[in-house]
Design brief:
The complex is a heterodimer of chains A (245) and B (105). In chain A, helix 7 packs antiparallel against helix 8. Chain A is built from twelve helices and no strands. Chain A is an all-alpha fold. In chain A, 47% of the residues are buried. The longest helix of chain A has 32 residues. Chain B is mostly helical. Chain B is extended, with a radius of gyration of 20 Å. Classes of the chains: A mainly alpha (245), B mainly alpha (105).
Chain lengths: 245, 105
């Protein structure tokens, strides 16, 4: 079984290439928060207190327009709802951990850390107790992302608006997600889940409070589940029967 | 002061969202259907973030060949599929976007 240390380092290593997409995004957040009129200290504090990129973007913009605090907090809730799905997805793997570990890892549960960690958890292994130390991998990935996020938002705040918009650096985040999701589409239900979620997200993008994202995600999950059940039902009818309510 | 309160509120709801399923699912056994559904969380959520970024770059649907982000994104997806390499995907995607922006303009 790999040691805690090697698991931790593997987690850091898995996240390193993703940082290429995260660093520009963090810098843009810093620039945008200053542009929205937030004091540098407040903009920086948001990166560690909230630690959720897209919610920080939306939050800074809403603060600039003088939106009431309650609305901003509610918006944050909706924008971050997808993390509930992430939490449910990693929960079975964290069951054996001390509460302190779970509280810490919950804080580090971002899109990027989740994507690499769940891939690691889902890898089949020969060892008898497969996921016993994989929380160290999660911690490594989470801390690598956390420290980079803090540093890159700080750089953005200090640089100010010196990064021209025509560089389109925000696109690095979309590319990061493409790099994470495409290789994982290895069967028909996953492909269908991704496509249907994507199409619904495009169609529902005008829904308020970014609700379209959740509607789309749930649609994709249902489509994937439905296709998988049909496929497995054709092969093993008894299994699909036991799953019916 | 108000700004700080808002940020702390944002932080609290974000943390509560991340923590609650981890704590709640600790004592109940997850039903098999939900367990299987969770496998689709990464492709569904990430695609729901990606596709609007490619197809609605300026906020409106743009399926034309003038949509540089769509073309660069498709190319990046091909690179990701063939190479499974994050750095290469981001590098090729950004290079493609910059070149296309010049060509299309």
């Amino acid at each position: 079984m790999p040691s805690s240390r090697s698991e931790f380092l593997s987690g850091v290593k898995a996240l390193l290439p993703i940082l290429l997409g995260v660093i520009p995004f963090g810098m843009i957040y810093g620039v945008l928060a200053l542009g929205a009129g937030l004091p540098g200290g407040v903009a920086l504090a948001m990166s560690s207190i909230v630690f959720a990129g897209s919610a920080q973007f939306v939050g800074a913009q809403l603060m600039a327009t003088g939106t009431p605090g309650v609305v901003i907090v509610l918006t944050t809730f909706i924008v971050n709802l997808r993390h509930m799905l992430y939490g449910a997805s990693v929960a079975p793997h964290l069951k054996h951990l001390h509460p302190l570990w779970r509280w810490l890892l919950a804080y580090l549960l971002t899109d990027e850390a989740y994507a690499v960690t769940i891939t690691h958890y889902n890898q089949p292994e020969a060892s008898p107790s497969p996921s016993a130390r994989k929380h160290w991998y999660f911690l490594g990935a989470g801390l690598a992302l956390w420290s980079t996020w803090q540093a890159s938002t700080a750089v953005g705040i200090f640089l100010g608006a010196q990064v021209p918009a025509s560089w389109a650096l925000d696109f690095t985040l979309t590319l990061t997600f493409i790099a994470l999701v495409v290789p994982a589409l290895n069967d028909r239900p996953s492909v269908a889940a991704a496509l249907s979620a994507g199409v619904v997200a495009v169609l529902a993008a005008d829904l308020p409070l970014k609700l379209g994202l959740m509607v789309a995600a749930l649609t994709g999950i249902l489509v994937g589940l439905w296709l998988e059940r049909n496929a497995s039902g054709a092969l093993r009818p008894s299994r699909s029967l036991t799953l019916d309510p | 002061m108000t700004l700080w309160l808002i940020i702390i509120g944002m932080g609290l709801v974000t943390y509560a969202i991340r923590l609650s399923p981890i704590v709640l699912l600790e004592r109940v056994d997850i039903p098999p259907v939900i367990r299987r559904a969770l496998r689709f969380v990464p492709p569904a959520v990430l695609s729901a973030i990606i596709l609007p970024g490619l197809l609605r770059p300026g906020g409106a649907l743009d399926l034309s060949f003038g949509n540089a982000r769509l073309l660069a994104g498709v190319l990046a997806a091909l690179v990701a599929w063939r190479s499974k390499n994050v750095l290469l995907t981001i590098g090729v995607g950004m290079a493609a976007l910059w070149i296309l922006q010049i060509l299309i303009r």
